[in-house]
Design a protein that fits this description.
CATH class of the largest domain: Mainly Beta
Number of strands: 30
Distance between the termini: 78 Å
CATH architecture of the largest domain: Sandwich
Low-confidence stretches: 1-25
Strand content: over 45%
Number of helices: 1
Mean pLDDT: 83
Helix content: under 10%
Shape: rod-shaped
Largest sheet: 8 strands, mixed
Length: about 400
């Protein structure tokens, strides 16, 4: 078995496999699935069923058994690894060797078949007899050898099968299915025996004989195929915050997936570019042609310096000296949080980098001596003082 990984080009281009099954010329081409959650990959066998004696089977690498392919294109495949199996049914005539004189009290040898079975499996011998044999397993038996006739094993019984031609005329053929041990051998010998006629019971009958013999065998080739998910959609954006109020801007640039894309914002808008936006959070879901989805979240910040007393809070927690710090809506500007003793004696200064989202955190001041303090949050345009007690 050979393993070939199909690395597929971007955006659903088609990549033919360079090699197929041995010398049979089978060629598989695949389409990518556009995201892990959507099973829309497909594979096409270009010379699908070029003859009635060829079949194809398909399974995922985790499946136990193969399923027969009924169409040249297999669709709705999830990203993953698969196995493709081609089975060619060969049908060849077997020349009957000269039959040695072998018999016992009940049976006599009517046919000796010798043939190679290298690279062949599922061996079935088809026999045409000189007359109908309604009680086949009573009238015949078979044995085979894989060591040049040194040892012989009893084979399965012959089965009768009626084959109908295009004129609707049925002809009886007789099948002998050989066991697996007869496959892949340098040489197989098969002996066919017929029950001797009874002079009283079989009056008027002629002894069974073989008029033609054929061997049906299967040659199997397997190949590994990988269906890969398309590169996930990437949402790039240009975002402009508020400058003077209600003038924020979001423009989306989508790459990957399968265009065209549709846009669904949480507020119901369906545009790729949003203008006149107020400060706040905006969430969009981008959907491509194959219904793959990607979500993105954006924050429009208010104008610099816009603040109110509600923007800053520093509240005592249950733990001594630990406070809950909240800074809301003060974005895009550096800040200082200054801790002072009464009389504005500075004891600690915290420099806060420009924020792009609201800040919620615990501030540990337990290292300070017990007593009363002031905490002042200040920016170039905003300042608020609050009292602290560490006890």
């Amino acid at each position: 078995m050979k393993s070939t990984v199909y690395i597929l080009p971007f955006l659903c281009s088609i990549l033919p496999a360079v090699s197929g099954f041995g010398q049979t010329g089978t060629l598989t081409r695949t389409f990518e699935a556009s995201c892990e959650s959507v099973c829309d990959g497909s594979a096409e066998i270009l010379n699908f069923r070029i003859s009635p004696d060829r079949s194809y089977y398909w399974r995922s690498v985790d499946a136990r058994g193969y399923g027969l392919i009924q169409d040249a294109t297999i669709t709705d495949l999830c990203p993953g690894n698969y196995m493709l199996k081609q089975v060619d049914i060969n049908y060849e005539e077997i020349e009957r060797s000269s039959t040695p004189s072998i018999s016992d009290d009940e049976f006599e040898l009517i046919g000796l078949l010798i043939f190679p079975s290298k690279l062949k499996r599922d061996l079935t011998i088809y026999l045409d007899l000189n007359r109908e044999a309604n009680y086949l397993n009573y009238q015949t038996r078979a044995e085979f050898s894989v060591d040049g006739g040194e040892t012989w094993r009893t084979s399965s019984q012959l089965n009768r099968k009626v084959v109908t031609d295009i004129r609707g005329i049925g002809t009886s053929r007789y099948l002998l299915n050989l066991p697996k041990i007869a496959s892949y051998q340098d040489e197989v010998q098969v002996r066919i025996y017929s029950r001797k006629l009874d002079s009283e019971r079989d009056t008027g009958k002629i002894q069974l004989s073989i008029t033609s013999s054929h061997l049906e065998s299967k040659v199997t080739h397997e190949e590994a195929v990988e269906i890969r998910a398309e590169e996930a959609m990437k949402i790039k954006s240009t975002v402009s915050n508020e400058m003077d109020g209600a003038d924020g801007y979001i423009s989306l640039d989508v790459q990957g997936g399968y265009p065209p894309y549709s846009f669904k914002w949480e507020d119901g808008n369906v545009d790729q570019t949003r203008r006149g936006l107020e400060a706040g959070t905006y969430v969009v879901e981008v959907i491509d042609k194959r219904m793959c989805q990607q979500e993105a979240k954006f924050t429009i910040l208010p104008p610099i310096g816009k603040g109110s007393p509600q923007n800053f809070n520093l509240n005592q927690t249950l733990e001594t000296g630990v406070f809950k710090l909240e800074i809301i809506g003060l974005y895009r500007q550096p800040m200082n949080l200054i801790i002072t003793r009464p009389g504005d004696l500075e004891v600690k200064r915290f420099r806060i980098n420009p924020l792009y989202d609201d800040l919620f955190m615990e501030l540990d001041l337990s290292f300070l001596p017990k007593g009363n303090y002031n905490a002042t949050l200040s920016t170039a345009e905003f300042s608020k003082k609050t009292n602290l007690l560490i006890d």
